[in-house]
């Protein structure tokens, strides 16, 4: 299945199989991020969530720097392809390409398909908690923390205030 890309932040243009593998890698980076960000840890603690027990992460907005610093070739293009980055003009300091990060400063929840593959993300901003925003990648699918068993009779979806 090929998903259509329209150039908008949050939309994907790579195949679902490649996307699932890449999103798993991205999630692992987000997962590390939640342990390195005091405000993110405080946010989840205030909501009575246990970071150690849940599949959650934090998007600091720094992931795309790995290509420049660690030489991770193709990372920026893949982030653009899945909608986690968009082009944002020219960097005034270096003259190079600038990027806008989707879901920056957000707690990240991986959304999974029936095969338990990460197929999208849900982002909950931790900035200005009273007016915090919720973000999903375009063409989202999947459910958190995983798909229910086929014999599930009732499924209740909820969100804390």
One letter per element, helices H and strands E, the order comes to: HHEHHEEEEE
Q: Termini distance?
A: 36 Å
- In CATH, the architecture is Alpha-Beta Complex
Mean pLDDT: 82
Radius of gyration: 16 Å
Q: Unreliable segments (pLDDT under 50, ≥5 consecutive)?
A: 1-12
**Strand order in the sheet with the most strands:** 1-4-5-6
Number of domains: 1
Helix content: 25-40%
Largest sheet: 4 strands, antiparallel
So, the CATH homologous superfamily? DNA primase, catalytic core, N-terminal domain
Q: What is the count of β-strands?
A: 6
Number of helices: 4
Structural class: alpha+beta
CATH topology: DNA primase DNAg catalytic core, N-terminal domain
Just give the CATH class. Answer: Alpha Beta
Plain-language structure description:
The chain has 161 residues and is an alpha+beta fold. The chain has a single domain (16-136), classed as DNA primase DNAg catalytic core, N-terminal domain. The chain is 27% helix and 20% strand. The protein has 4 helices and 6 strands, in the order ααβααβββββ. It has helices spanning 16-35, 38-46, 65-70, 75-82, and strands at 57-59, 85-90, 97-101, 106-112, 118-125, 134-136. The strands form 2 sheets. A 4-stranded antiparallel beta sheet has the order 1-4-5-6, with helices on one face. It has a two-stranded antiparallel sheet with strand order 2-3. Strand 5 (118-125) and strand 6 (134-136) form a beta hairpin. The longest helix is centred in the first third of the chain and has 20 residues, at 16-35. The model is unreliable at 1-12 (pLDDT under 50).
């Amino acid at each position: 299945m090929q998903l259509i890309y329209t150039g908008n932040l949050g939309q994907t243009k790579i195949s679902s199989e490649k996307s699932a593998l890449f999103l798993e890698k991205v999630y692992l980076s987000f997962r590390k991020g939640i342990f390195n960000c005091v405000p993110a840890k405080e946010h989840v603690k205030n909501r009575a969530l246990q970071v150690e027990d849940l599949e959650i992460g934090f998007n600091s907005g720094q992931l795309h720097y790995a290509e420049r610093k660690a030489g991770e070739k193709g990372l920026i293009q893949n982030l653009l392809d899945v909608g986690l980055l968009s082009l944002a003009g020219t960097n005034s300091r270096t003259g190079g390409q600038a990027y806008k990060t989707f879901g920056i400063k957000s707690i990240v929840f991986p959304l999974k398909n029936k095969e338990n593959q990460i197929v999208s993300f849900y982002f909950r901003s931790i900035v200005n908690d009273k007016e915090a925003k919720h973000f999903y990648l375009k063409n989202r699918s999947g459910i958190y923390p995983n798909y229910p068993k086929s014999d599930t009779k009732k499924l209740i979806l909820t969100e804390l205030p």
